[in-house]
Amino acid sequence: DTGVSQNPRHKITKRGQNVTFRCDPISEHNRLYWYRQTLGQGPEFLTYFQNEAQLEKSRLLSDRFSAERPKGSFSTLEIQRTEQGDSAMYLCASSSGLLPDTQYFGPGTRLTVL
Amino acid sequence: LAKTTQPISMDSYEGQEVNITCSHNNIATNDYITWYQQFPSQGPRFIIQGYKTKVTNEVASLFIPADRKSSTLSLPRVSLSDTAVYYCLVGDTSNNNDMRFGAGTRLTVKP
Questions:
Q1: Residues A97 and A103: beta-carbon distance below 8 Å
Q2: Do the Cβ atoms of B51 and A55 come within 8 Å?
Q3: pLDDT tens-digit series, residues B28-65
Q4: HSE toward the beta carbon, residue B85, CA cutoff 13 A
Q5: pLDDT digit string (tens) for A7-25?
Q6: In this structure, what DSSP letter does residue B5 have?
Q7: Distance from CA of A17 to the nearest CA of B (A)
Q8: Quick one: which of A15, A27, A45, A104 is 20 to 30 A from A4 by CA?
Q9: Nearest-CA distance from A74 to chain B in Å?
Q10: Residue B69 has pLDDT above 60, yes or no
């Protein structure tokens, strides 16, 4: 069990550019989550996958955000036309779905939009 | 969704036992209580999870009274490295999009 991994760990981009983050969940975890965290706040839920199906999206996930989980393994989160307000830590978590279920988080990707 | 209330911050000294209480008055029958620890620039780390009474693992204990309207995370003999933000979450784990983080409790351990 190597834990949840996220790449890159840091990303600096200019406003208007597109960025993509990758999350590799714990192997055999069929649930995967994306969160966003800004300074001083707790993580905010963005979206949730059960295998390859995206089951819920938060209202925080504007149409500039898209997430995929092809083949139910790794996931990508893309932000198009980035804005300065997108600067945050983007966290990925996975869980097995066995009850009581527990989410395990990755180290996050810190995005800075200049 | 069961809303949680925690103290914003707490201070302690090395070697002391720290108890952080979380209120969740409208907890539902299927809800579990989960605590996470988060260090700066890292993802939250799972500490402990419980449904009722007492749960203990190698790092903490979780006390849940019979009415389940609150819970207390107990950290024995804290060290400087326990300085972190601690989050209490309450939700139905069969529906994991039900889990929501609050602002957490910022614990500062002093020498």
A1: no
A2: no
A3: 998 999 999 999 989 999 999 999 999 999 999 999 99
A4: 19
A5: 999 999 999 999 999 999 9
A6: B
A7: 24
A8: A15
A9: 18
A10: yes
Pairing of strands B70-75, B18-23: antiparallel
pLDDT at A102 over 70: yes
> Beta-carbon neighbour count of residue A49 at 10 Å?
22
B52 touches chain A (CB under 8 A): no
Q: Does A26 touch chain B (CB under 8 A)?
A: no
**Strand-pair partners of B18:** B75
What is the CB-side half-sphere exposure of residue A103 using CA atoms within 13 A? 36
The verdict on a CB contact (< 8 Å) between A100 and B32 is yes
CB contact under 8 A, A45 and B97: yes
- Gyration radius from chain A CA atoms: 13
